């Protein structure tokens, strides 16, 4: 007889179905906890039917323990947590029956609380369902136990339904969890799809937009439109300031509390995620921004605009952080790991785009600079004052030529372009051309190479060439520049010739100066001892011997005159002889010169006629000494080359600006051939073989002296009739009274003997290394018994003797073996014990510069050798008298 199934059978069948369902799910998912739950459900169904009979509590609890273990495994709990969940219930089941029956409610209560905690933290509906099933099961079993039902009844009516509820909740929770995960995956796929679309559109914008600001604006719009971000904003870093460069969405409202620009050094800015991303250069996400502690200053704006998540994605430029892309979303957890990775790729593309924009700008700038440089080069090239061409190295053809080159060659630019250099009107010789390219190949350039340029029949020019390799219009070329230095080259040759001439002149002057010094030294001995001989033995010599002695002295003085004239000529040629032109009364000077020449004229029976006697006083501008020398030389020539009984006439012709002095003789005269060589030094016009003495240098010196005084000389002569010399001098109106000047000892005609001076007394110190010169001075001064003569052989001993002797007169030679006379003079004048001494420089050197240096250092006078004995004695006596008049000196030892 059929009996309808009761509650236990229905529960058992349901548990079997659940067990089968869990097995099916296990075969697909392969989670061990599903198999455990299936076994627990099957065992629970068997125990519900009482099979194989009433079981002890610990065995009746085993199915529920398996299901609880499976639920804890599903929740992802560790083994220790699962053991802590199941262990206490199993221990309680072994207690006495009164307590053992509470094992199942305790197990369900612990499981329910665990599921409730996980449901709250993970917001999972399945977890909440499991918590409800476990807690309701615990309540149901607790009610049954508390109502006093026996164990069999509880096992049949309470255990089964409670276990069924928990077993049925597990697959439902699993399905709910999978549905949630599927929904989340779908949302993620949507977000990823949106941002993949944003990435694609960003790459399109990168290829299309080359402006940095416009690119940022486009990216923000793409992130909002395609990526479904609530807000997009780009901050660009400029030093310590972050500028809001571009925005999309309601950024202005959300970011209303952020300054623009934003000083990132402020404390509030330092606490923000934006500045952190800029500083650290790594992406940052806040997926629950409204509950983020660091969002406190901006939480109100986020809540007001429904923003739940933010992401900050820094992008780089030139190797450093340039800015940050800030995105906002309206869902919590929006910026998960996959999306952040995709966004990191997006900002990576932005960084590459920024570098590409910079490179493109640099390329454009470089291109503009190249174009501007080419334009400047063309401008400078065409306007350059130096002839310039650009030649192809491979073909040696002209690719460019400036205006200066076209003008120099005589061809238009169109005629020159494309031609080889050998086809031009102006070209180098084959030898110069090959040398040019050889130097170019050897050194890579040509520097300051001088070459001759041929232009048809015209005179070749000297040009300085330079060539530099350049790249012109993509071809290896040469920039060739040439400068016509023909005039400079010729001027340089002239300068070099002048330098050689000046060097030769200086060498000649120095040679003549040395020779003058060397000749004066022996002449000093010849003339000095000859005069001493005349004065000492004149009474014992016969007339013929006296005549021979006269000839000796005359020859010596004539040789001295020759030396002086040669030295004057060399000084003039070297530019070392200066004249001091000043207003001068001419008539007294002529009278003096006539008087000095009269003796020689009387000896030759020549009459001197002063035809200027009737002239009014007239002044000229000249050097008195040199003009006297000129007039004496001309009168001497007029007398020497005259005939016995001849006449020399001196006359004047006065004009407004010039005075012309004419000296006319009735002598031998000259031919035109002789006149053409008249002013050549040492050329006596063939008369050097005659009996008339001469050097052939007098007229040359005369003309040079006149030119130095701004004057001139002219000569007119006829052979056998006579010669007329005309001297022209600048005229002056007023002439001061000029005292007469004696002729210097360096140019004596035969010195006249002055009156014998009174015998001086005192000490004369002579510093002289030449024994002959010292002996001569000693013997000249020996006639004065009251005069003490002391000699020093060198400069140092001379200075020491000067300090100890305190001489009345110090005669000082200028060339000494140890230190020169200038140094001795300097020491004498610098020492307090000797600075008052009368010092006379006695030297064979007559160079003006040496005389000037000696005078500047304090010498009282400068006497040149050879000495005229009587003149020397008179000068010594004069200086000794002056020294005596000054009073005695304190001796210094």
If you had to describe this structure to a student in words, what would you say it looks like?
The chain is α+β, with helices and mostly antiparallel strands and 893 residues long. It is 54% helix and 17% strand. The chain contains 28 helices and 24 strands. Strand 18 (712-718) and strand 19 form a beta hairpin. Helix 3 (57-74) packs antiparallel against helix 4, helix 8 (151-208) runs antiparallel to helix 9 and helix 8 runs parallel beside helix 14. The model is unreliable at 1-5 and 737-753 (pLDDT under 50).
Q: What's the count of strands?
A: 24
Q: What percentage of residues falls in helices of 4 or more residues?
A: 40-55%
Low-confidence stretches: 1-5, 737-753
The number of helical elements comes to 28
Q: So what's the oligomer here?
A: single chain
Outline of the structure:
54% of the residues lie in helices and 17% in strands. By secondary structure, it is α+β, with helices and mostly antiparallel strands. Helix 3 packs antiparallel against helix 4, helix 19 packs across helix 23 and helix 25 runs parallel beside helix 26.
Write the layout of secondary structure elements.
Blueprint: H1 7-29, H2 32-48, H3 57-74, H4 79-93, H5 97-100, H6 103-122, H7 125-146, H8 151-208, H9 212-225, E1 231-238, E2 241-248, H10 251-254, E3 262-263, H11 267-270, H12 273-280, E4 284-286, H13 299-304, E5 309-317, E6 320-329, H14 337-383, E7 387-392, E8 398-401, H15 403-409, H16 413-416, E9 426-428, H17 430-443, E10 446-455, E11 461-472, E12 475-484, H18 486-537, H19 543-574, E13 582-585, H20 586-603, E14 607-610, E15 619-622, H21 624-640, E16 647-654, E17 658-665, H22 672-676, H23 698-708, E18 712-718, E19 722-732, E20 762-767, H24 771-781, E21 787-792, H25 795-805, E22 809-812, H26 821-830, E23 839-843, H27 848-856, E24 861-864, H28 869-885
Parallel strand pairs: 14-16, 20-21, 20-22, 22-23, 23-24
Antiparallel strand pairs: 1-2, 1-6, 2-3, 4-5, 5-6, 7-8, 7-12, 9-10, 10-11, 11-12, 13-15, 15-19, 16-17, 17-19, 18-19
């Amino acid at each position: 007889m059929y009996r309808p199934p009761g509650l236990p059978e229905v529960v058992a069948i349901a548990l079997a179905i659940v067990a089968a369902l869990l097995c099916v799910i296990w075969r697909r998912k392969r989670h061990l906890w599903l198999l455990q739950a299936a076994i627990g459900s099957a065992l629970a169904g068997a125990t519900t039917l009482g099979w194989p009979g009433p079981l002890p509590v610990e065995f009746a609890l085993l199915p529920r323990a398996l299901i609880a273990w499976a639920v804890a495994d599903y929740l992802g709990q560790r083994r220790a947590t699962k053991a802590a969940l199941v262990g206490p219930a199993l221990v309680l089941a072994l207690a006495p029956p009164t307590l053992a029956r509470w094992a199942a409610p305790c197990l369900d209560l612990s499981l329910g609380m665990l599921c409730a905690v996980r449901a709250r933290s993970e917001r999972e509906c399945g977890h909440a369902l499991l918590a409800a099933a476990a807690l309701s099961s615990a309540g149901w079993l607790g009610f049954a136990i508390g109502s006093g039902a026996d164990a069999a009844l509880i096992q049949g009516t309470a255990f089964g339904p409670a276990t069924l509820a928990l077993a049925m909740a597990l697959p439902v929770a699993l399905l709910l969890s999978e549905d949630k995960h599927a929904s989340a995956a779908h949302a993620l796929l949507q977000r990823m799809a949106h941002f993949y679309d944003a990435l694609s559109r960003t790459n399109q914008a990168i290829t299309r937009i080359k402006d940095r600001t416009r690119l940022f604006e486009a990216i923000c719009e793409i992130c909002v439109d395609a990526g479904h971000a609530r807000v997009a904003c780009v901050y660009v870093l400029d030093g310590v300031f972050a500028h809001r460069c571009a925005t999309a969405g309601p950024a202005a409202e959300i970011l209303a509390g952020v300054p623009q620009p934003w000083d990132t050094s402020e404390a509030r800015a330092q606490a923000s995620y934006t500045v952190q991303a800029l500083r650290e250069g790594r992406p940052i996400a806040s997926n629950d921004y409204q509950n983020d502690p660091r969002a406190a200053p901006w939480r109100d704006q986020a809540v007001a605009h429904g923003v739940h998540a933010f992401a900050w994605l820094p992008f780089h430029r030139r190797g450093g952080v340039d800015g940050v892309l800030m995105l906002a979303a309206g869902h919590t957890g929006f910026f998960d790991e996959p999306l952040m990775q995709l966004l990191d790729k997006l900002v990576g593309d932005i960084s590459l785009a920024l570098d590409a924009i910079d490179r493109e700008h640099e390329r454009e700038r470089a291109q503009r600079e190249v174009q501007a440089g080419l334009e400047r080069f063309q401008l400078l090239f065409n306007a350059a004052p130096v002839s310039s061409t650009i030649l192809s190295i491979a073909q040696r053809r002209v690719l460019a030529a400036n205006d200066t080159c076209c003008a120099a060659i005589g061809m238009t630019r169109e005629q020159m372009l494309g031609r080889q250099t050998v086809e031009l009107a102006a070209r180098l010789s084959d030898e110069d051309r090959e040398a040019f390219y050889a130097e170019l190949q050897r050194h890579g350039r040509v520097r300051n190479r001088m070459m001759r340029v041929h232009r048809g029949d015209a005179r070749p020019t000297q040009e300085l060439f330079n060539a530099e390799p350049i790249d012109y219009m993509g071809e290896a070329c040469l920039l060739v520049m040439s400068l016509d230095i023909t005039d400079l080259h010729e001027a340089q040759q002239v300068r070099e010739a002048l330098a050689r001439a000046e060097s030769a002149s200086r060498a000649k002057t120095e040679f003549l100066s040395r020779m003058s010094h060397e000749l004066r030294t022996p002449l000093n001995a010849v003339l000095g001892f000859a005069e001493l001989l005349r004065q000492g033995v004149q009474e014992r010599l016969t007339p013929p011997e006296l005549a021979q002695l006269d000839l000796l002295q005359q020859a010596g003085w004539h040789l001295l005159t020759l030396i002086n004239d040669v030295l004057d000529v060399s000084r003039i040629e070297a530019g070392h002889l200066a004249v001091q032109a000043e207003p001068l009364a001419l008539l007294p000077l002529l009278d003096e010169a006539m008087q000095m020449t009269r003796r020689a004229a009387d000896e030759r029976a020549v009459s001197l006629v002063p035809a200027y006697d009737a002239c009014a006083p007239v002044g000229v501008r000249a050097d008195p000494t040199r003009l006297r020398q000129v007039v004496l030389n001309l009168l001497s020539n007029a007398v020497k080359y005259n005939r016995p009984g001849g006449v020399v006439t001196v006359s004047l012709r006065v004009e407004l600006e010039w005075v012309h002095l004419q000296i006319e003789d009735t002598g031998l005269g000259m031919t035109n051939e002789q006149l053409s060589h008249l002013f050549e030094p040492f050329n006596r016009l063939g008369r050097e073989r005659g009996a008339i003495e001469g050097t052939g240098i007098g007229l040359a010196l005369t003309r040079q002296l006149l030119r130095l005084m701004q004057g001139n000389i002219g000569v007119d002569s006829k052979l056998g009739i006579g010669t007329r010399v005309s001297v022209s001098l600048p005229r002056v109106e007023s002439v001061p009274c000029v005292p007469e000047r004696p002729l210097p000892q360096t140019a004596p005609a035969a010195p006249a003997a002055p009156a014998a001076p009174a015998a001086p007394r005192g000490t004369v110190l002579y510093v002289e290394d030449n024994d002959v010169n010292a002996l001569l001075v000693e013997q000249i001064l020996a006639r004065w018994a009251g005069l003490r003569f002391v000699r020093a052989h060198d400069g140092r001993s001379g200075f020491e003797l000067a300090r100890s002797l305190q001489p009345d007169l110090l005669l000082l030679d200028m060339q000494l073996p140890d230190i020169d006379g200038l140094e001795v003079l300097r020491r004498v004048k610098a020492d307090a014990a000797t600075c008052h001494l009368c010092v006379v420089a006695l030297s064979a050197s007559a160079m003006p510069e040496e005389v000037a240096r000696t005078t500047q250092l304090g010498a009282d006078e400068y006497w040149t050798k050879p000495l005229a004995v009587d003149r020397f004695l008179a000068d010594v006596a004069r200086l000794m008298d002056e020294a005596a008049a000054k009073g005695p000196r304190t001796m210094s030892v």
